[in-house]
């Protein structure tokens, strides 16, 4: 038993059930600083999304064209016009039909027959980067990447850009036909 007037276990225990105003304000300041750093980065990432998606779609298409050339056993070509949105894929067939091609020095001439597999366009606001040598006397010059039945391709680099002149390079490695995508570049970076 305890004597009257002795301190009991009910002393001043500090069991807080709430936060102070200062602690709440401190958390709000930290959250606003983090948000100020993250929001501009997210905005830039979202604005480049269409360009990234178009580059990835193009990489996938070029990989499929390579695979189709191997499966079909014939060369395929990917063709585009710099500064434009349109591109096409076509099959190349070699023929040695004497009646349709004639002869050269008594030998049948081989002709290349092209069968188009269709024309497509890049998404709105995305186009192939215009090369300085893409026009000759005002005539559009088509640029071509060939994919061969042995899995190889022409060493090529093509680039696409958006309306804000950000661009991405798509590279085709000749020996293996592998297709890769580079990083986004601003016009001033190139």
UniProtKB/TrEMBL annotation:
**UniProt membrane topology term:** Single-pass membrane protein
Major localisation: membrane
Q: Which UniProt keywords apply?
A: Membrane, Methylation, Transmembrane, Transmembrane helix
The question of whether Transmembrane helix is a record keyword is answered with yes
The membrane spanning regions, by residue number, are 20-42
Transmembrane helix keyword on record: yes
List locations, semicolon-separated.
Answer: Membrane
* UniProt superkingdom: Bacteria
BP GO annotations: protein secretion by the type II secretion system
Give the protein name, as stated in the record.
Type II secretion system protein H
Q: Which organism is it from?
A: Calycomorphotria hydatis
């Amino acid at each position: 038993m305890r004597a009257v007037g002795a301190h009991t276990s009910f002393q001043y225990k500090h069991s807080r059930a709430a936060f102070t105003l200062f602690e709440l304000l401190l958390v709000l300041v930290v959250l606003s600083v983090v948000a100020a750093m993250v929001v501009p980065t997210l905005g830039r990432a979202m604005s480049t999304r269409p360009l990234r998606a178009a580059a990835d779609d193009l990489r996938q298409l070029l990989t499929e064209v390579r695979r189709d050339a191997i499966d079909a056993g014939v060369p395929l070509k990917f063709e585009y016009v710099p500064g434009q949105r349109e591109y096409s894929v076509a099959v190349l067939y070699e023929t040695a039909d004497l009646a349709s091609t004639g002869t050269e020095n008594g030998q049948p001439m081989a002709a290349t027959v092209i069968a188009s597999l269709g024309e497509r366009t890049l998404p709105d606001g995305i186009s192939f980067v215009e090369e300085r040598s893409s026009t000759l006397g005002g005539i559009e010059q088509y640029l071509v990447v060939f994919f061969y039945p042995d899995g190889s391709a022409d060493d090529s680099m093509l680039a696409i850009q958006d309306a804000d002149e950000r661009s991405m390079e798509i590279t085709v490695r000749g020996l293996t036909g592998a297709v890769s995508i580079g990083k986004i570049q601003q016009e001033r970076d190139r």
